[in-house]
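Example 270.
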Amino acid sequence: MLAMTVEGSPIDPHRPSIARVYDYLLGGKDNYAADREVGDVFKRDLPGSVAIAFANRAALTRAVAEIARTTEVRQFVDLGSGLPTADNVHQVAQRHAPESRVVYVDIDPQVLVHGRALLEQNDRTRVVRADVRDPESVRNHRDTLELIDFDRPVAVMFSAILHHVNDEEDPAGIVSHWRDHVTSGSYFFVSHFRSGNNPETAEAERVLQKTFGRGRWRTDKEIEALLDGLEILAPGIVPAPLWRPETPDGPWNGGRGGDGGSGADSGTGG
Ligand code: SAM
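Predicted structure in complex with S-adenosylmethionine:
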């Protein structure tokens, strides 16, 4: 297999990547044997893993649609955006509000390559390679500043990303940084692995930590603590399928057909 380098970082097909394992769970094709091996551990040991991934994606789609349809917000920053899939954030947002602008942010070099090819479909989308643990570098990135006017409200999407930030890396500090640097009228969307305080989620956390050195299943109380200073909107912190299920644009099926499920938590703050 050939290795490729993007902005100085190699795409290593022999080492699993979070983005590609997730792509595998969603039924995508941008993954290698090493990713499928980890994904298969999840499918075997954490029942409902595939349904959880689909439910998360569906909740994200509904949240973007809800923001684009019902608020004045026309700019989105999608943190830890993942590999392109069906109904990416700009497609959903621009379906409801064509003038919407979207900056995708991910640390994975493969996301940058595939994203630039598939997500930068018009002059209102950009893909930025940056580390969400350094929010200043995301906000001040040339491409972010080109598209996002921070004097106007922004939607900051933390979809399935904060659980990839370990406690000692201060996930609450990342959220509060964005809270303190966006104007009022901005919205946050957060989805997060939900700890059931049971052997399955403890084992899943062990596998992710061993494989990637990151991955936290947090309790609802711990997730709420990450949202300090934000007003949590109805219906609050709930399993992903229960987050505003009546919103149009669901169910998300990856363009291929799939099922719903639970296990990830979601909520919006404004
Ligand atoms: N947000 C998408 C969704 O909810 O469908 C994708 C979520 S995927 C589980 C997590 C993504 O976060 C991966 O693409 C991974 O590369 C990215 N990621 C993990 N740690 C990151 C970091 N420190 N900075 C930027 N991206 C990161």
